[in-house]
Amino acid sequence: MRIELEKRPKVSLLYAFLSPVIALVLTVVAGAIMFVFLGKDPGLALYSFFIEPLTEVWSLHELAIKAAPLILIGVGLSVCYRSNNWNIGAEGQFIMGAVAGSVIPVVFHEWHSALVLPLMLVTAMIGGALYAGIPAFLKARMNTNEILTSLMLVYVAQFFLDWLVRGPWRDPGGFNFPVTRTFAPEAILPEMLASGRANYGFAFAIVAAFAIWFMMRFTLKGFEISVLGQSERAGRFAGFSSRRMIWFSMLLSGAFAGLAGISEVSGAIGKLQPVISPGYGFTAIIVAFLGRLNPLAIIVAGLVLGLTYLGGEAAQISLALSDKVVRVFQGLLLFFVLSCDTLIQYRIRIVWRRMSGGVVTGQAVPGAAAAEGAL
């Protein structure tokens, strides 16, 4: 017996649209079962995760802070994935963008000017783009697998940040703690509203999502991304260059990740420290696919995943749960998103094999047509 995936002749548009919703519902059900096995009340746990963070104004601001980097990185990754370039290293680009953008407030901390913050944002985008340019160069020139190279560079970025804050950039007045100087007021990203901490990083994310949506929907570059992503050979016939697309998509996603990095450091933290991300770069991959690589849908997906971070913190306090439960939730969500998409595109077929005169012959399952129709 073997199990095969057979491509469906026609994909249901209704199920394709409902796939993220179905995946989210299945994640909630699986999460409830998990809480039962952990000895927790599933209703209370799910309330702590998804409802409690929405009941106070200050928590809505915190949700915007959590969602902003997820949306910004996810939008950049959507361009990569739709062009068939698999950037898995946004976490490293997030970190290197934060490091590059922090050069001015840390090294040139005596300079006070209105230009400090704009220059920080620009240098962060350049830093993230240049770091994403490493796997782009290796793929464009040497046909190296960008999944492996971008992922391995994440660890380089993490150790580089750790070395900086424990070594040359350590605050001399910080009582030997591994942190940099606290950023000056000119280097702090302003809050959008007086009612909470939400800063303009969330505004950057929304603007980026609408800009990429417009590019994908109404420009030649968006058409080029779609064509090359679906068929590189067809793209060559149309005069498009897959090598240039590697550079464009990787640099763009790296720039967005770098902007997310400096927005997080300048807006929410106020200094560099050994850990500046709870895994935003990896979670943004889930955000991109939950949003079906649509920039506007990624806004909603980013808010949902941001809610899991915020709800996870609430559940740790109220239910004494481990922070690893949040990762399990996010992993379940990615699993169900990919599973639902697979079953929409393919049907499951079970093929039985039997011995006939020493020769193995294939035989489909009796009633296979009805079973395949049900699947």
Beta fraction of the residues? 5-15%
Encode the helix/strand succession as letters: EHHHHHHHHHHHHHHEEH
Assign an overall shape.
Answer: globular
Using DSSP, what is the number of strands?
A: 3
Rounded to the nearest angstrom, the distance between the terminal CA atoms is 18 Å
Question: How many alpha or pi helices?
Answer: 15
Poorly predicted residue ranges: 360-375
Structure class: mainly alpha
Helix content: 55-70%
User: Largest beta sheet: what is the strand line-up?
Assistant: 1-2-3
Q: Tell me the radius of gyration.
A: 23 Å
Q: Residue-averaged pLDDT, rounded?
A: 89
User: How many strands, which pairing sense, and closed or not: the largest β-sheet?
Assistant: 3 strands, antiparallel
Give a brief outline of the structure.
By secondary structure, the chain is mainly alpha-helical.
Structure characteristics:
375 residues, mainly alpha, 3-stranded antiparallel β-sheet, 15 helices
Secondary structure: elements and pairs:
Blueprint: E1 2-7, H1 13-37, H2 42-50, H3 57-82, H4 90-101, H5 103-107, H6 116-142, H7 146-166, H8 201-218, H9 220-230, H10 232-237, H11 242-269, H12 280-290, H13 295-319, H14 324-345, E2 346-356, E3 359-364, H15 368-374
Antiparallel strand pairs: 1-2, 2-3
Helix pairs in contact: 1-2, 1-14, 2-13, 3-8, 3-11, 3-12, 3-13, 4-6, 4-7, 4-11, 4-12, 6-7, 6-11, 8-9, 8-13, 12-13, 12-14, 13-14
